[in-house]
Records
---
Amino acid sequence: MKLRLIFCLLILSCTAYAHAGVEGVYGKGITLTETTPVSAIYDAPQDYVGRRVLVEGMIIEVCAARGCWIYLSSDRPFEKIRVKVTDGEIVFPIAAQGHMAKVEGVVQEIRRSKEQVIAWRKHLAEEKGAPFDPATVTGPEVTYRLRGLGAVIE
Amino acid sequence: MNWRHLNRAVHRDLGYLCCGLTLIYVISGVAVNHIDRWNPSYRLTRIESNIGSLKDVPREDLVPEIMLRVGETRQLKNVFSSAPDELTVFAEGNTIVVNLHSGSAVQERYLPRSFLYEVNFLHLNHPKKLWTWFADLYAVGLGLLAISGLFVLQGRQGMKGRGAVLVAAGVSVPLFFLWLYL
C-alpha cells in the first residue's frame, strides 16, 4: 500500500513539474565555457566547420512537429542560426520560443541543390501549416548550422 | 513458500505497481508514434490577418501596439527583429510575426494538450533528474513482469505448450519487421 502511495505521489509531483516551464538542461548539457558569437561563424564559416562551439541567443523558432530543431538569434541584427538535434534525443518544447538559450554543438556545412532547397522549404512550410511558393527559390544554397549536442534554456 | 508461489506473487504485485505507468506509456507511445501528422504535446493554431500598417508608430510603442491590435493580453516574453521591417513578438502561448509596413500578421498560438502534454513529458523523459532513475526502475520492473509471467502457469498451458507457442509468436513479430525494414 505504501509503495503504491509513493508511486502515485511521484507521478503527481512530476506532473506538477511539467508545468514548471521550459527552463533547464537539454541533451548532454554544455561543457564549453567560452561562447562563440554566431556572427563570427558566418564571417569565417570554414574556420568553424567541424568544430565544437558554444553559442548563445534567443530561441526564435522551434520545429512545430518534433521539436528537433530551433533557430537561435545571432549577436548581429537580423541574423539567426539553425540548430538541428537528433530526433527524440533532444526535444525542444515549442514554448521555448522567446527564451534565451546556450547551445553547444558542431558547426556543419549543408549544400543543397535547387530541387533539394525546394523540397526542404516545402517540408518546413508543411510542418508549420504555412503556404510555400517554389518560385521563391532561385538556386542552390550553402547554409551553416549547428548539430546540437546539448543546451541550457534560461 | 515454493518458488512458483513467490513468482506468482512477484508477477501479481509488479502488475499492480506498473499498471499506472504502463498506461501512461501506452497513451503517449501511440501519440508520439504519429508525430509526423500532429504535435502530440501542443495544440497549434495559425492565424493570418492584417492589423494595419505600423510604420508611423514610434519604435518604443510598437510592441504594446501590436499586442493590442491582435488582442493579445498574455505576458510578453521577448521581441526579435528578423528584418528591418519585420518584428516577432513572443507572448506566453503566442508568437506574432508582423510586417511593419504592410501590417500583415501571422500568429502561431500553442496550447499544451490536456493530459497528453503531461504523459508525453514523462514518457519522453523531459524531467530528467530523479525521473530517469525511476523510469529505469520501471523498465526493470517490466522486464521482471515479463519473465515472471512466463512461469505463472505450468504444464501444457505454460512453457511446455501454449505459453511457449505464444512467446515464440511474440518474439517473431519484431524479428519479422527487422528482417523487412532493416
Note: Chain B has a mean pLDDT of 94.
---
Amino acid sequence: MTEQIVFDELEQGAESPREDGRGASVIKTVALQVSALVIFLGAWEALTVSGVIPSYLLPTASEVLAALGEDIRDILTGGPMWTHFYTTLVEILLGFFFSAVIGVAVGAILAEFKTIQRATYPYVVAANATPRIAFAPLVVIWFGFDWASKVVMAVAVAVFPVIVNTMAGLAATDRDDLRLMRSLGATRSQLLWRVRIPTALPYIFAGLETAMLFSAVGAVIGEFMAGNAGLGYVTLLAQELFRLDDAFSAIVLLSVQGFLLHRLVVIAGRRLVFWQAESALPK
Amino acid sequence: MQVTIRDLRKVYSSRGGGEVVALEGVTTEISSGEFVTLVGPSGCGKSTLLDIVAGLIPETSGSVNFGNGGADPGQSTRVGLVFQKPVLLPWRTALQNVYLAAQLGLEPAAKTDDALDSRARELLDLVGLSGFAEKYPWELSGGMQQRVSIARALLLEAEVMCMDEPFAALDEFTREQMHVELLSIWERQGFTGIFVTHNIFESAFLSDRVLVMTPRPGRVVAEVAIDLPRPRHKDMIGTLGFTENVRRIRDAMSEHWTG
C-alpha cells in the first residue's frame, strides 16, 4: 500500500507541469518521451539487424512493429486477434470487478468486527504472502479450461491489495474528526458513512489501481495454464511456433490494455476523490 | 447557561499500570454569559477539563452541572466545540461543513433544508465569510478555515461554547483580528464561553475571568478577574490597565508553579 502511495506521488509530481497550465512544458515533455522511445527502438533495431543479438533470440524492432500493425488491423476489422484481445479484456475486467467487490467487503468486515479480525488476520497475511500463482494448476482442475479459471486466478492475485487498503482506510480516520463527530452527537453509522468511508476512499482507490494491474497478471497466467483464447495464449502459442515477433506484438497489446485500464481507475479515482490532490489541509 | 463544576477529578491509567491524575479537585462556577479562560502550561489538564465539560470524556469523580442543577453535558444542553485545528471535512464545502452539525444526532428542532441552508449562510456572514459558502476547505486560508469551524459550532445554538486553543495555529495578525471578532460574536450570541490557551495575553484580552491552572496534578490554583471594560478593542493591548492584568495572571502563575 505504501508502495502505491509513493507511486501516486511520483505520478502527480510528473504531471505538475500540466497543472501549472504551461503548454510549452507539456510539449517539451512529450517531445522528450517520444525521443526516448525512438532512441530505444533505434538501438534495438541496430543491435538486431547488425546481428549483435541473433534473430532467434530477439526479432528486429521493425519486425515487431509490422506484426503489431497486422494485429491492430485484425483487431479493428474483427479478425481472430479481436477475439483474443476481447477475451483477455473481459477476463481482466471481471477479475477486477470481483476483486473490488470481494476486497472491499472483506476489508470492511475485518475493519469493523475486531473479533473476526483477530481470529483471521494472520491467515489473511499468510495468504497474501503465498505466491497465489502456485494455485494455477489446481484452479484449472476446479474451474475448467474456460474463462472462469482465468477470472479466479485474476481475483486470487488482485483481491489482496483491495482488502488491505480498505482495512487501512477505514482505520485511518483522524482522531480530531472522531472528537468532532462525537461532540456533534453522531451515531456509529453516521460516523461510518459521513467520515470513515470518505476518509477510506483514497486508500481504496490506491488498492483498486494495483488490483487492475494484478488482475491482468492473473488473467494471463490463467491463459498460460489452459484454454485456447486470449493474448496470453497467443504469446504462448507464438513461443511454441517460434514466432517471436508475434509474441512481442501480443505483449505490447497486453501492455497497452493494462495501461489504459489502469488509467481508467486513476481517472475515476480523481473524479470521485476530488479533494485528495487539492487538499492541503493541516491534518 | 450557568456551568457549575464541583470537585472534578480525572484519573488516567497509564500503560505501566500506574495512574496519572490529570485533574484534581477542580471547583468553579461560571455564570451565564461569562467568558472564562483556562490558562496554564502544557499538561496542566486544561484540555481535559474542557473535554469533560463538552461531554467528550467522562469524569472520574465530581460533577459538571448546567443551569440550576441537573442536565448532563451534551444531552439537554448543547455544548459547542471549537478545536485547535479547524477539523473540516475536505469533501464538503464551507456551507456543508457548517450544517454538518444539523445532519447528525443533535438536530435542532424540526428545520427544513431551506431553513438550515439559510441559517448556515447567515452564520458564514457572521464570521465574515460571505461569498465563500461554496468553497472547499483547501481553498480557504487557515484563519478562514477556523471561522468556518466557529460557524459550525454556532449552528447548534449552543449555550456553552468550549474552545480549545482555537487560534494557536494562526499567525499573530490573524489571531488578533480573530480575538476581536470572536468577542463581537460572543456579545451578539450571548453564550457562556470557556476558552483554553497557554497565551497569557490572549487570556487577558478575551476574558471576564482567568482560571490559572498548574500541572501534576492538574488543578485550578488561582482566579484572576479581568477589570478591562467591554467591548474590548485592539487599542487596549498596549495600555497600562492591560499590562497590569497580564502581570496579575503571571504573578498568580509563578506563585504556584515553577516550570
Note: Residues 39 and 45 of chain A are 10 Å apart (CA to CA).
